Amino acid sequence: MKSTIIALLFFTATACSAFGMSPEQVHALIKRVDANSAPIQYESYLSIKNHKPGGSFTEQKAHVYRKDDKVLIVITSPAIQKGQAIIRNADDMWMYLPNSGKVLRIGAKEQSMGGEASNTDLLRVDLAEDYTGTYVGEETVDGTLCYKLELKANDRTIAYDKVIYWISKEKELPVKREYYSLSGKHLKTMYLKDVKNFHGRVRPSFLLILNEQNTQYKTEILVEEMVAVNNLGDFIFTPSYARRGTLQ
After folding, report:
1. Which of 53, 171, 178, 200 is most buried, taking the most CB atoms under 10 A from its CB?
2. CA 240 from centre of chain
């Protein structure tokens, strides 16, 4: 009996080694990466550059607030867009336009800030909750050995049906993501680069998003600052608060 148990344990360990990670281990890995990349509550400042064919581009700066599954992004420049806000509160998303005073309900797949970053890319980064992951193997990306995962959306309300995700094996940091539609079309690729230490939290500071249908369309997002906070009230993640125009 004892020898049978030992043999079974040996077989299980060998199988785990041969087949990589179980779905439960993949889920735990993604949760760790999400948790390491950003605090549960934080403020950050972004610079966003949207490139178009021919070399033209637009630039924006934004102040971001996050608390759990709530996010508020307030555009601080250019002047023509100053005070615009996009808001997520759980599964609801809105955009506030200060010039008209209107609040518009928006969808996860829309690109309310322009460029190649969808509202999901900016507001909803709950990969561990939105997707079920499968271990594919190991692969080197830009000189970094990574776990390669395939994530399938848990339902059709999620912006992308499938995500191929590379996570650095040594430091468990996000390196690259490919996003696919329900039909299997490769929509875009996100590269996460330039790892920096933000007050003890090590994470990529630069995101490059390429439109795979026309790679002359691309968005660059630079995280200029990120700091953990513990005093964000739930009331700021509402359209009524955005209307006050008090956040910059």
Report:
1. 178
2. 26
